[in-house]
Amino acid sequence: MQINQNKRKQRLILLSFVASIILTGLKFFAYYLTDSNAILSDALESIINVIASGFAFYSIYLSAQPKDRNHPYGHGKIEFFSAGFEGALIVIASLFIIIEAVKRIMEPAPIQNLAQGAIFIIITIIVNMLIGYKLVEEGKKSNSLALTADGQHLLSDSVSSVVLIISVGLIMLTGQIWIDSAASLLFGLFLAYNGFQLVSKSVAGLMDATDESLLEKIVQSISENKKDHWVDVHNLRVQQYGSDLHIDCHLTLPYYWELQKAHEAIHEFENILKENHTGETEIFVHADPCLPKCCYFCKMNNCPVRQYDFVQDIDWDAANLVKNQKLYEDASLKLNV
Fold first, then answer.
1. Which of 149, 32, 14, 162 is nearest to 85 (CA)?
2. Average pLDDT, the chain
């Protein structure tokens, strides 16, 4: 299952790479026909597509490699680096495009054959939208930042090309050449914003920043499948490296259980979390013994060592489960017990 998913990701990113090379050639041919600065900006940005897709292909290949002695947590973080590399290239390209646009505004140059050039750009829009949508869809399904980033890049390229076509149409209708450079300037600013967003996501991933949506998904899975003998879950940590998911937490179980029974309960807990993830899931659970104060919040029936009656349940939400303390400790203070 995991192997097939990785092969599918590699095929998709390879398709993106080949398509980017062909479409970049079409855009430069359109620039050759028109001498349009806006079309040149679009073509230059497409060079970034080629480089980024090539690096993304390598990163997806590397992230699929098994763990080894030097990389005990796998190679999934390379996808964060790939997205950051792509974002940095986009920002650099946007700066070049903005500078050239300002120069053209100050020193306008004649434009020709806009209709013919627009036809080639329209072809690139259609292809980029189809491939970009597929990459984003598959990237979200497989939790691949490299795949999602490349797909979003192609989609943003399509949007910017649509703006380019509109500017070409306005130039043909009005004859105002300055529109070409203005469109190029807006295109450069749009690219800079998208590049910065990619770099931010990459840095967050490399720094192990919390993915709130992923954390909420894990917490929801725990809460919806909560067992009475799961007395407490705390110190929950969730990290995504490529398509690999890593979860650490502390699980409080009845202190009088034998080791075999505690092991089976932990195995059940791990299987529930793995059911909702398509990639490889690695879970480390530290088992804690329950204490007398847990009785106030424990719903286990017929407990042979219960010392206090059940008082209330505790909300198992993200804010509670990530705390580095047992849930009953904070709840006990509030109840003054």
1. 149
2. 83
Length of the chain: 337
User: Which pLDDT tens digit goes with each residue over 82-99?
Assistant: 888 888 888 887 887 788
Enumerate the H helices of 143-258 as residue ranges: 145-174, 178-206, 212-224
- Spatial separation of the C-alpha atoms in residues 314 and 328, rounded to whole Å: 8
**What's the sign of the alpha-carbon dihedral 179, 182, 188, 191?**
negative
H or E element, residue 232:
strand 232-241
Q: How many CB atoms lie within 10 A of CB 41?
A: 31
Beta bridge partners of 282: 246
The pLDDT of residue 110 is above 80: no
d(CA 279, CA 243): 5
Report the distance separating Cα 196 and Cα 42, nearest Å. 18
Tell me, what's the pLDDT at 266? Answer: 96
Query: What is the pLDDT confidence band of residue 11, given thresholds at 50, 70 and 90?
Result: confident
Query: CB neighbours (10 Å) of residue 124?
Result: 26
* pLDDT bucket at 109, cuts 50 / 70 / 90: low
Structure tokens at 66: 């098994």
Domain with CATH 1.20.1510.10 in the chain: 2-206
CATH code of the region 212-335 = 3.30.70.1350
The CATH homologous superfamily to which domain 2-206 belongs is Cation efflux protein transmembrane domain (1.20.1510.10)
The order of strands in the sheet holding 281-289 is: 232-241, 244-253, 281-289
Closest by CA to 291, choosing from 327, 248, 237, is: 327
Buried b (16+ CB within 10 A) or exposed e, 234-260: bbbbbbbbbbbbbbebbbbbbeebeee
Nearest CA-CA partner of 151 in 52, 81, 71, 235: 52
